[in-house]
């Protein structure tokens, strides 16, 4: 069987969640890194696979699927040897799903709301209300951490999904250890238990941070030159 193809970028948290999930269940992927600045996700061919033009997108056989949360549930349900990452128990699944929605609707959405205008739209500043939204998101995760992991006492898709955005957020906007000690300890724990955390999260988040600083500086110079 040909490996599942993953269209993604090195920096995207959503794509990294798919890479980590595949690694954890021993699934080989044919990873194709795309360049969104060259609009490779807006081609007719890509839009046929994913009309939302987002990465990650996978193609399993001849079936294209998109949205990281949908993809990681699909991969574990279809290919994992056991259900540890997404237990069949419906209450546990509902709790994991709630955290996947937190990742999608709060963590990733607020991260994207801040970074995208800088990466792609020439924005030269970080609006305070958006920064406040990031620190409020940290408080929400702090409050959600009732044990070592987001759901129950073992690593699940909730952690795999949330840690990708959290790692990048924490690199760019460091978590205050005084205000969110559980979150800091949680991220350190995940560094130990998620396979290749350093490569998938730390290194890639640093790459995003470098790009962020470069673009912010470039945008500030352009905006100053216009005044
Ligand atoms: N909810 C989606 C979000 C994916 C997403 O927005 N990815 C960004 C890259 S970080 C993207 O593809 N942006 C291009 C676009 O929206 O046109 C997921 O989890 O897969």
TrEMBL record:
> Which InterPro entries does the entry mention?
Glutathione-S-Trfase_C-like, Glutathione-S-Trfase_C_sf, Glutathione_S-Trfase, Glutathione_S-Trfase_N, GST_C, Thioredoxin-like_sf
Q: Which UniProt keywords apply?
A: Transferase
Q: From the UniProt record, which GO molecular function terms apply?
A: glutathione transferase activity
Give the highest taxon in the source lineage.
Eukaryota
Q: Which residues cross the membrane?
A: none
Q: In its UniProt record, which GO terms are filed under biological process?
A: glutathione metabolic process
Tell me the enzyme class: transferase
User: What family, per the record?
Assistant: Belongs to the GST superfamily. Theta family.
- Tell me which EC number(s) this protein carries: 2.5.1.18
Query: How does the record describe its quaternary structure?
Result: Homodimer.
What the entry lists under PANTHER family is as follows: GLUTATHIONE S TRANSFERASE D10, ISOFORM A-RELATED, GLUTATHIONE S TRANSFERASE E11, ISOFORM A-RELATED
Q: Which reaction does it catalyse?
A: RX + glutathione = an S-substituted glutathione + a halide anion + H(+)
Query: Any idea where the GST C-terminal domain is?
Result: 89-212
- Organism the protein comes from: Culex quinquefasciatus (Southern house mosquito)
- Where would I find the GST N-terminal domain in this sequence? 2-83
* Name by which UniProt lists this protein: glutathione transferase
Pfam families the record matches:
GST_C, GST_N
């Amino acid at each position: 069987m040909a490996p599942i193809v993953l269209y993604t970028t090195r920096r995207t948290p959503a794509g990294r969640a798919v890479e980590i999930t595949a690694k954890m269940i021993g699934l080989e992927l044919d990873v194709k890194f795309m360049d969104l600045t060259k609009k490779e996700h807006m081609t007719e061919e890509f839009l046929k696979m994913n009309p939302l033009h987002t990465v990650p997108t996978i193609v399993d056989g001849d079936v294209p699927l998109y949205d990281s949360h949908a993809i990681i549930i699909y991969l574990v349900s279809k290919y994992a040897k056991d259900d540890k990452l997404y237990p069949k128990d419906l209450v546990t699944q509902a709790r994991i799903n709630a955290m996947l929605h937190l990742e999608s609707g709060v963590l990733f959405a607020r991260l994207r709301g801040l970074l995208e205008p800088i990466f792609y739209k020439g924005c030269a500043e970080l609006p305070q209300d958006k920064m406040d939204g990031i620190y409020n998101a940290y408080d929400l995760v702090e409050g959600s951490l009732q044990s070592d992991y987001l759901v129950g006492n073992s690593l699940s898709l909730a952690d795999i999904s949330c840690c990708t955005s959290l790692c990048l957020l924490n690199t760019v906007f460091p978590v205050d250890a005084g205000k969110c000690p559980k979150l800091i300890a949680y991220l350190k724990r995940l560094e130990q238990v998620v396979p290749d955390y350093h490569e998938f999260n730390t290194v890639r988040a640093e790459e995003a941070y470098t790009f962020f600083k470069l673009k912010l500086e470039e945008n500030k110079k352009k905006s100053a030159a216009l005044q």
